[in-house]
């Protein structure tokens, strides 16, 4: 994306975010940037003000745009948000001096096929396949066309390395250093009895793995697909194929960005 001095600012409706956006806009204008009132797909940068949830919402609302993105954190400690509101001046100095790197992260893509059509869903953190209305579900899980298990339980969560610290971690999955690109399949309340056998820990797969999930016939109308918290309800789902997308989310990183520092601060 060429540097054309157009910047998108997207913020949630908390007073802190609105005030932060007002200050940021004033500073950008003083630096001769144009701040668009509507989302501009030709912009050189998108700045999202809020927490991790707001950051994910921007990607979903605008279709995972091919524009570098950075978050200013007005929520809890954010994994996607690089800048604190009191560091805006420092951030702008670094941005203007081009003292940053761009991390390209592949989201996960699901092709959800029903008896009538196929629909796509995308997740930066994860895609969850679970029982609708709290039903236990039974799923056949294939990796690269090999059946690896018949799962029974609440559902399964397929996470990117980036999403490993989110719902995946709360569900007993492992934290993955973002320098390693993997897919992680984490069971949600797996049933292990005389009748049903499911893996009880996460399974880690290579970045090019293709995962296929088929619900048992009688559960075709009882599953829901959730991508980064967004629910997709469809009838007669016969299979879901998941793999890392070729799309890239371009995260702008400043010099002092430290993944493990955030992990320790948030979880220990
Ligand atoms: P949300 O309220 O926007 O987010 C729920 C929590 O997940 C927030 O504390 C959020 O951090 C945190 N989070 C999101 N992405 C993260 C990441 N990559 N690493 C560490 N923490 C992260 O909820 P939502 O809009 O429904 O869904 C968005 C995301 O929430 C989903 O992608 C899912 O991963 C996560 N979620 C977690 C659980 C759980 O842990 N039991 C359940 C449902 C959904 P901030 O406070 O910084 O926003």
TrEMBL record:
Its cofactor is a divalent metal cation. InterPro entries: ATP-NAD_kinase_N, ATP-NAD_kinase_PpnK-typ_C, NAD/diacylglycerol_kinase_sf, NADK. GO terms for cellular component: cytoplasm. GO terms for biological process: NAD+ metabolic process; NADP+ biosynthetic process. The keyword Transferase applies. It catalyses: NAD(+) + ATP = ADP + NADP(+) + H(+). The keyword ATP-binding applies. Its EC number is 2.7.1.23. It is found in: Cytoplasm. One of its GO terms (molecular function) is NAD binding. The active site is at residue 52. It is an enzyme of class 2 (transferase). Its main location: cytoplasm. It holds the Pfam family NAD_kinase_C. NAD(+) binds at residues 52-53, 57, 125-126, 135, 154, 165-170, 189. Keywords: ATP-binding, Cytoplasm, Kinase, NAD, NADP, Nucleotide-binding, Transferase. Involved in the regulation of the intracellular balance of NAD and NADP, and is a key enzyme in the biosynthesis of NADP. Catalyzes specifically the phosphorylation on 2'-hydroxyl of the adenosine moiety of NAD to yield NADP. HAMAP family: NAD_kinase. Belongs to the NAD kinase family. This is NAD kinase. It comes from Alkaliphilus metalliredigens (strain QYMF).
């Amino acid at each position: 994306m060429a540097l054309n001095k157009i910047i998108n600012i997207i913020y949630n409706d908390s007073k802190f975010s609105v005030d932060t956006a007002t200050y940021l806009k004033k500073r950008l204008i003083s630096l001769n940037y144009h701040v668009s009132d509507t989302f501009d797909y030709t912009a050189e940068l998108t700045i999202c003000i809020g927490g991790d949830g707001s950051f994910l919402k921007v990607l979903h609302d605008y279709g995972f745009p091919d524009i570098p993105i950075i978050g200013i954190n007005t929520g809890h400690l954010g994994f996607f948000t690089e800048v604190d509101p009191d560091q805006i001046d420092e951030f702008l100095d670094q941005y203007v001096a081009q003292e940053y790197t761009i991390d390209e992260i592949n989201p996960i893509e699901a092709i959800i096929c029903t008896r009538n059509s196929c629909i796509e869903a995308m997740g930066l953190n994860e895609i969850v396949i679970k029982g609708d209305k709290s039903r236990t579900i039974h799923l056949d899980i294939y990796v690269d066309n090999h059946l690896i298990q018949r799962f029974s339980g609440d559902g399964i969560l397929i996470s990117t390395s980036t999403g490993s610290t989110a719902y995946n971690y709360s569900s007993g999955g492992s934290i993955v250093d973002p320098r390693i690109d993997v897919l992680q399949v984490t069971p949600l309340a797996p049933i292990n009895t005389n009748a049903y056998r499911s893996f009880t820990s996460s399974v880690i797969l290579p970045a090019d793995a293709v995962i296929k999930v088929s619900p048992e016939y009688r559960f075709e109308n009882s599953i829901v697909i959730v991508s980064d918290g967004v629910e997709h309800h469809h009838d007669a789902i016969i299979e879901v194929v998941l793999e890392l997308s070729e799309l890239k989310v371009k995260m702008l990183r400043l010099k002092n960005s430290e993944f493990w520092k955030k992990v320790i601060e948030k979880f220990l």
